[in-house]
Amino acid sequence: MHRLYADHHGWLQGWIRRKTGCSQRAADLAQDTFLRVLTVRAKGIAVYLDQPRTYLATIARGLVIDQWRRLQLEQAWLEALAAQPEAVQSSPEQLALILETLQQVDALLLCLPARVRRAFLLAQIDGLPYREIAVELGVSERMVKKYLAQAFLHCAVLEAELDGVLVE
């Protein structure tokens, strides 16, 4: 692992810096990439490094995308928050908890099949009734009910995890 780090850290950090345009972010994500490799190896999963740069770039690309999504989500939240009257605004601790929860919900939605995710968002964000969702998705109302049941089940699992009820 030491050899992998010594041979490729500088290259990886430069590669990430070109992708993100930020040397500090590149340094953090390069470290996160090697941490991910260590974590995988610690779990006893074989890591074949015939092409270490390809392997590292694949992991780093995923981390860059994850960070980009988190930044987008955070920016949208901050814009929505800025539109609120001052009396409604939350403390920094509350904001951090809200952002963390939003990131978890975002990750949960990404785990859902595309149609289930779309049905859930149409119902919860757009407030559409089942009939309109069915038309939008080109499925029956019964299928919309199944999609939403699946989405709500995932939400219930997330809520239980957030409340500390479920343990991995």
UniProtKB/TrEMBL annotation:
The organism's place on the tree of life at top rank: Bacteria
Entry annotated with the keyword Transcription regulation: yes
Domain called RNA polymerase sigma-70 region: residue spans: 4-72
Any GO BP annotation: DNA-templated transcription initiation
Residues spanning the membrane: none
Coiled-coil ranges per UniProt: none
Entry keyword Lyase: no
A GO molecular-function descriptor: sigma factor activity
Pfam family, one: Sigma70_r4_2
Keywords assigned: Sigma factor, Transcription, Transcription regulation
NCBIfam families in UniProt: sigma70-ECF
Family (UniProt): Belongs to the sigma-70 factor family. ECF subfamily.
Protein name listed in UniProt: Sigma-70 family RNA polymerase sigma factor
Organism per entry: Pseudomonas nicosulfuronedens
